[in-house]
Amino acid sequence: MFRTFSILFFLFFLLNGVSPLYPYIQLGATNNSPAIPDFLIPPSPGLDYEPLPVNSAGSIALVLPSSAVSVRTAGGFGQVNTVSVDGGLSSHTRIAFDGMVLEFPHNQSFDLGLFPLEFAARVDIYKNNLAPLGYNASGGMADFRLPSYLTPKLMLTLSAGTLYEGGAKALLALPYGNGGLLVGGSLILSENRFYYTGNQGIDILSRNLDFIRYSLLAKWTQEGWHAGLAHTSKKAGAGMKYPGLGRQADSLSIANFGWGGRQFSFGAGYLLWFSRFTNNLGMDDTHISHTFDGNCETRVKFDIFALSLKLSSKTFLLESTKLGARTGEDLSIIAGVSAAPGPFQFGGNLNLVWRWGADPVPVPGGSVEWKAFEGFSARLSVSRHYRPPTMNDLYWPYDGFSSGNTNLRPEEGLIAKAGIVWIYGGLTLSGSAGISLFDALILWKPDTGGVWSPVNSGKAAAWVGNIFMRYDGMSGWWRFMGSAGFSYNRTFNSDEASVYFGKRLTFIPLYKFTLSLRADYAKEFGAEISLRGVSERFTDDWNSHWLDPYVLIDLRLHYSFFYIQLNNLLDTRYSEQDGYPMPGFNMSAGINIELI
Is the pLDDT confidence value at 355 over 70? Predict the structure, then answer.
């Protein structure tokens, strides 16, 4: 780690005198309409970027109105597990919180319930392979961003619902110059008591899903630099599949710092994750993860050409009752070049990746974008896919239920994607199609004895398509907003030597669609109705068992400072994950008060 940060500071002094391009931090986003986003990754040719506003509803699935994003949950309020972009594997999707990518040594899919999404004002969705830009995310990334207010605000939210849940949230914004201070705190709890249909067709009361979590955060932004702190403590039951057998306690702390001049940017972060699982037999499973993150970047522009150089480093320290004490380091050097002759923009990146002390691996990518006329652009990108195994994959000890595999090879492949975007007034239309080819895809599967272990499952291919439309317009005192989207993903075994050739991979929906309509009158009254549907998802390699498709309808109403949220109006019985049913019709209500 000392070697890595020495290189970072050396590059800082070496490159601090290059010609300016643009400020790294750009402010001015409001809670409702992000005007100038402060990009984690500036959009480059071929990168499909989409900022979406979110609300403070209890279900995380409700705050992700894009059909390209899927959420897998373990049942009930606050029991969110993982998210994936373009309907693929969650292990191929990165999660970020306010610009900081969350990555740990021992897990491959991050639990969204561990950080305070209730404070997010928007989610930035990147629907492409980000490996050439230094991020191990062949499926894209979801970055949940905190708001930036231009006027002082003190807001208080109180809520309660029929799943025996309640919550409170306070957020204070104090602008100062071109930045200011943002502080907040929240408390959320739920018993998650609801009935679901069991295997014998009998209604069963859910158990062991109770949940309590509190969060604290603070962020200071000023004149091109920012610093932030966030802490979350979560205690919950381990799920209804094995009721009463486990309790989970998690504590996540995040600290990050960033600075950007007109020619150079630097960022550093630290993540501490304490996770402990206990069962009624007194067995204990504890993980303490430390992640040190550092990066610096510079860009030089010469007329129509631009060059960029970025260094990114992650150092992992892990103390675990199962995996023991382990360390690891990721180091990436990313060189990029772009050219913008006329209406075209060409880009190329080369990422050299060092992981776990192995030899460097080159991950190249290229793209082109054509801006045919004002508001319309078409893009094409091609890049290599590379994802090495995690510590979980390699070293998880045999415990009777699961086991690691030290013989795993890294995933490799090729990803190509093309798309168009048309913006006309308040209307935005976008469409994309792509293909991903994987070799040695890493999947956790049970053996004949029921023990889960990661294996290189051979070759796989994915055909992906997205269509999305959004409208935002005013008519007098009325504001009308709407969105509609459809995503298609056929991910299947493409190894002709396999007995599963042509079969779809497990838990990946073939399609997903969303529809949302909203109207607000003078910020006093408003209504929003949303619909989302998901196809069947197979639960075995033979495609002989599956989770049923479903369609959900939700309604949200607000008048002045009062709101009511009606979820699953049709009382649909469904599951996002095998063995973990979701609630039927439920509702919550609350107040949002602005004291300043």
Answer: yes
The rounded Cα 90 to chain-centroid distance in angstroms is 9
β-pairing, 140-145 vs 93-97, is parallel
Residue 469 tokens, joined:
């439309």
**Displacement of CA 237 from its chain's centroid (Å):** 23
- Evaluate whether 493 touches 500 at the Cβ level (below 8 Å): yes
As a whole number, the mean pLDDT across the chain is: 83
Alpha carbons 276 and 241: distance in angstroms, whole number: 19
Q: Exposed, middle or buried, 281 (CB in 10 Å: 0-12/13-18/19+)?
A: exposed
Question: Which of 245, 225, 240, 258 minimizes the C-alpha distance to 285?
Answer: 245
Go through 378-407 and write b for each residue having 16 or more CB atoms within 10 A of its CB, e for each that does not: ebbbbbbbbbbbbbbbbbbeeeeebebbee
Say how far apart CA 498 and CA 248 lie, in whole Å: 38
Identity of the residue numbered 93: T
CA distances from 461 to 217, 384, 387, 505, 507 (A): 41, 14, 16, 10, 15
Are 279 and 245 spatial neighbours (Cβ–Cβ below 8 Å)?
yes
173: buried, middle or exposed (CB in 10 Å: 19+, 13-18, 0-12)?
Answer: buried
Confidence of residue 193 (pLDDT cuts 50, 70, 90): confident
For the residues 514-540, what does the mean pLDDT come to?
90
Residue in 446, 489, 452, 445 with CA at minimum distance from that of residue 467 = 489
- Please spell the DSSP secondary structure of 354-404, one letter per residue: EETTPPPEEEEEEEEEEEEETTEEEEEEEEEEEE---HHHHHPPP-SSB--
Name the residue with higher pLDDT: 135 or 348.
Answer: 348
Q: What does the pLDDT look like over 410-452, one tens digit per residue?
A: 999 999 999 999 999 889 999 999 999 999 988 888 777 778 8
Give one word for 482, left, alpha or beta, with left for phi > 0 and alpha for psi -120 to 50: beta
Cα of first residue to Cα of last residue in the chain, in angstroms, is: 45
Residues 6+ apart with CB under 8 A from 26: 36, 37, 38, 39
What one-letter code names the amino acid at 350? L
Is residue 290 within 8 Å of 317, Cβ to Cβ? yes
Percentage of the residues of the chain whose pLDDT score is greater than 70: 88
Length of the chain: 596
Q: How far apart are alpha carbons 519 and 531 in whole angstroms?
A: 16
Separation between Cα atoms, residue 507 and residue 494, nearest integer Å: 17
Torsion, CA 15, CA 20, CA 25, CA 30, rounded to 10: -170
In angstroms, the CA 298 to CA 296 distance is 7
pLDDT of residue 158: 92
Q: Is 490 exposed, middle or buried (0-12, 13-18, 19+ CB in 10 A)?
A: middle
